[in-house]
Amino acid sequence: xxxxxxxxxxxxxxxxxxxxxxxxxxxxxxxxxxxxxxxxxxxxxxxxxxxxxxxxxxxxxxxxxxxxxxxxxxxxxxxxxxxxxxxxxxxxxxxxxxxxxxxxxxxxxxxxxxxxxxxxxxxxxxxxxxxxxxxxxxxxxxxxxxxxxxxxxxxxxxxxxxxxxxxxxxxxxxxxxxxxxxxxxxxxxxxxxxxxxxxxxxxxxxxxxxxxxxxxxxxxxxxxxxxxxxxxxxxxxxxxxxxxxxxxxxxxx
Length: 253
Hints:
This protein has helices spanning about 20-30, 40-55, 70-80, 105-135, 145-150, 155-175, 205-210, 220-230, and strands at about 10, 35-40, 60-65, 90, 140-145, 180-190, 240-245.
């Protein structure tokens, strides 16, 4: 049994990010044609494109602001023209900002998280789900976070955005399920990626005390969960919030 996405077209927003780039590579390695979204890091997008093409895969790069509906619609037009209709959406992009306490956090940071977590998902759904409905097939995957369950100090804007996103995904799963479209979330823990690999990563003992597997996850493990949910192996899973955290957070029943 293997994950085979041959013939599928995937969009990964934030495709040049630390986790996004590994999702892009993994989906391409599974046979999908991939649209690599970026906001400003065109150099990394081009590097990923060349890497996938050198490995015999098919990809394109698309630039856009995922907080603007018009920008997402422009991306859709480009993908439709160059690859075809999207089968798999991975909403991975998020606006970065400096975390601080609620009393000191700027209101614009709450707005940025709402726009990049909630409204990105709404705009992507409006743009790409109608074609999935027509085909009666599709995968809509959002990247959430363990922080949504932890609610630690200084996380308020991020948690608020991601918890709002969670509500959208749960409702969307019920609204489009009859079309055999699955809607799921992957929630990474504190993950080791390219920027800190080999830099004594995973040595934070305070964090590891709460992780049953006693290690930090790696970027490939997040991408593996995404690829699974994108595949036919996960055809009867929808509305799920799946932590990839080594057990650091455990949703209750």
